[in-house]
Amino acid sequence: MLMPSCAVFTSCCVERESRVTKTESLVLKTATQRLLPPWLCARYGYLSAGMMCARSPYPNESPSSGDSGSALITDDFQQIGLVSFIFSDYPNTPIYTNVSYYYDWITRKSLILYCG
């Protein structure tokens, strides 16, 4: 199993929902996130083995409603997670699906889907 190259307490970045209005251009928004150790994530609620959590070092810079499925990427542009959900009591600590945990499953399903 691959391990995220974004070590605990180091920075990652998550894509956020972009909105287009008549006065704005389409701009991909990001939020800096720092992965938290599993024991700390467990304080926020039950997480399965394929989950991880993170928090922004900056106030009001977290994924929000509409950001589910957005990629959590490292500084060297490797995707390590997907925004999964946010506990309503802890809106600044989003929960991510750990992509490396599901690597074998993703590979198998991709082969079936695209290779026949």
UniProtKB/TrEMBL annotation:
GO molecular function: serine-type endopeptidase activity
Signal peptide residues on this chain, from the entry's feature table: none
Keyword vocabulary terms for this entry: Disulfide bond, Hydrolase, Protease, Serine protease
Domain Peptidase S1: 11-106
The keyword 4Fe-4S is assigned to this record: no
InterPro entries: Peptidase_S1 (IPR050430), Trypsin_dom (IPR001254), TRYPSIN_SER (IPR033116)
A Pfam family reported for this protein in Swiss-Prot or TrEMBL: Trypsin
GO terms for biological process, alphabetical: proteolysis
The protein's name: (apollo) hypothetical protein
Species for this entry: Parnassius apollo (Apollo butterfly)
